[in-house]
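Section: Multi-chain targets

For targets with more than one molecule, the full set of components is provided together so that the structure can be written out for the assembly as a whole rather than chain by chain. Components appear in the order listed by the source. The example entry contains two components.
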Amino acid sequence: MAQVTSPPDQVVEGRRPATGASPGPDAAGLGRARATGFLVPSMVLILLFLVVPAAWTIYLGITNYRLTGLAAANPEIVGLDNYTRALGDERFGSSLVLTLQFVLGSAVIGQAGLGFAIAFALRDRRGPLRRVVEAFVMLAWILPSSVVAFLWIALLDRDAGTLNTLLGIPGTAWLLDHPMLSIIIFNTWRGTAFSMMLYAAALENVPRSHLETARLAGASTWQQLRDVVFPRIRGHVLTNLLLISLWTFNDFAPFLITAGGPEQRSEILPVYVYKVALSGGELGFGAAISFIMLLINLVIALVYLRMLGRRKEKA
Amino acid sequence: MNTGTAPAPAPATDPAGEGPTIAVRHLLARIGRYTFLCAVLGFFALPLLWLATAPFDDTPTITASLPQFTLDNFRALLDNPYALSSLLNSVYLAAGTAALVVTFAALAAYALSRVRVPGRDALLYGLLLLSSIVTGTATMVPLFELAFRLNLIDSRLGVILILSGGLLPAAIFILKDFMDSTPTSYEESARVFGASALQIMRHIVVPVVRPGLATVGVWAVANVWGNFLVPFLLLRGPEKAPAAVIMYTLYTEGGQADLRLLSTFSLLYSLPVALMFVFVSSRYGFRFHGGIKR
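Its structure, encoded as tokens over all components, is:
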């Protein structure tokens, strides 16, 4: 289980004995040249559609390039103007704060917390209850985002939404009055499956006898979690937090529900970039913000790798 | 302990004599756990109710309710010019991307697994990190630009190539894992009998790692099937738009949404991925391979 999602270094260490150093440098007689030939198609696509756009973002970010008008024909280098403008821009600042709220609320607390809680509550069950709960959680995850977006619009509808009908409070406009809360709960609903599955796999690594011993010694659930479970799954927790933070940070799905509104109150960074660059036509400025997003993503990834490294040193 | 939750019968034979408190605690824990699981079930099922009821209701509304059963709503699908063709477009995009990703990733993963390329691991992790960082949203401006320069705007091939570029690093990563865990002895003997590298690949490696190829294929299809942003950015006009984009336009454009069309279309569009999930999980057991969603 959890092959790819377990921390990269662990995968490599775990796998190495399988390949061993044994198969020699080239068991299949592939040869350097042919091996390179096998690599070329993938590398061309990756280079063209992954590396080039990343590099291009940096370049576009220092120009005043626009979708239409004079600056579309002759973009000029404007240096760091876009960046100073972005950093001084109130809309960017508030968008950044909203994004951090979104990541913290829906990924770190929502998805990871709920995912772990479900995995822990189901850890020693095998029956239909487990299958049904898992199936519904998974369904929320695998359905296409434009479908689930409409399901949530229908659920939260002001006059006839199922939620208001159930609660008996017609007229509550969730998406207008609490746009951030709405998309945070939506994204928790949407993405919990990944964390649930990862933690379910991780919990299988915690020996049942240890939990049993702790329980017999009178440890409360919280003490069991802190002293027995978490030390063993810390690597999984870090991997999980990294991935879901990155995914949530770049998630465009809230656009389908609130389109950033009302009055930009749910305008997280991906929606902001889309509006500035493609609706507003300011490609250069949009690219600068994209680059800032890339940097933030990189920082998230580095913090994670750092923590993972420290964990290994301790071990 | 396999099926039970808390050791319920423990208090009766509890030797320590602190039975009552422990029994009460276990009972509370058990009630708490069931309450929690029921709440979870409700939370996850509630938004899905509408998808199950509205398509079959003769007067569908926004509210999920017991339907007056009818199948007439599905006729709305035939009346809409783009509904069925958009599903075909989705199939086209998903199949194209999956074929490209599986083929290219298999070749690359095989080469990386069998030949010691210097800096191989660094390259792999670097690319994996890049692909999770450089997502569609952060690079949508240059992607749009790039597609414009390469004449790939409003081209389905463009969407396929861009999606493939984004999926390939993780696909190579997954497949290399599979390739690494297969023995090389077959390949060695085939080589002794004079098989070429591509022959070995096709007749020996591919059959052995077929589960891995299937995993990557399913994963790629699921990713493309739900992807909204890339086709939304690159494709103009509804003729080429996949279901994800048409679905969005159905409820955002043109005033009052046609709920008959919307509900049946949602269901039809969701069905393939749901069925694929059921198939994969019953056939292989739902193994964790890095996630269907990115």
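The domain at 80-283 of chain B is CATH 1.10.3720.10 (MetI-like fold).
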